[in-house]
Design goal:
The protein is mainly α. The protein is 59% helix and 0% strand. It has six helices and no strands.
Length: 123
């Protein structure tokens, strides 16, 4: 996606928010577009929300009262990614990328926060 297409999407998001009585900054619109891009894929392909994605991918925390929940540390890292403040380049991030790859979640073509292929950068 080129910069003009990206800015058009951001402007449309800003206009939609304003029509609904909300004011967003450009940064907030970018985060909204990115979060929706990833979460829609999780939902449309697998019926999962982010926490469900973490659980089925094996990122499980303590089992409380018979309920499985995601590991809080991993949940924080994934939410940081959804908020565009983590590029998933560390060890945990690489595991999250692998889990998204296994489910067919495209994170390299996000309209506002595409991640580079780590293998291509290492070469």
């Amino acid at each position: 996606m080129d910069a003009i297409e990206q800015m058009q999407m951001i402007m449309a998001t800003l206009a939609e928010a304003k029509a609904n009585g909300k004011e967003l900054t450009i940064e907030q619109a970018q985060r909204k577009l990115h979060r929706e891009y990833i979460t829609r894929q999780l939902w449309n392909k697998h019926g999962l929300r982010p926490k469900g994605f973490l659980v089925i991918s094996g990122f499980i925390g303590d089992d409380e009262d018979g309920f499985v929940s995601p590991d809080p540390k991993i949940d924080t890292i994934f939410n940081s990614y959804l908020n565009m403040s983590n590029k998933l380049t560390g060890s945990t991030g690489r595991h999250l990328r692998k889990a998204m790859d296994e489910l067919g979640i495209d994170y390299q073509n996000s309209p506002t926060y595409p991640l580079d292929n780590l293998e291509e950068n290492a070469a």
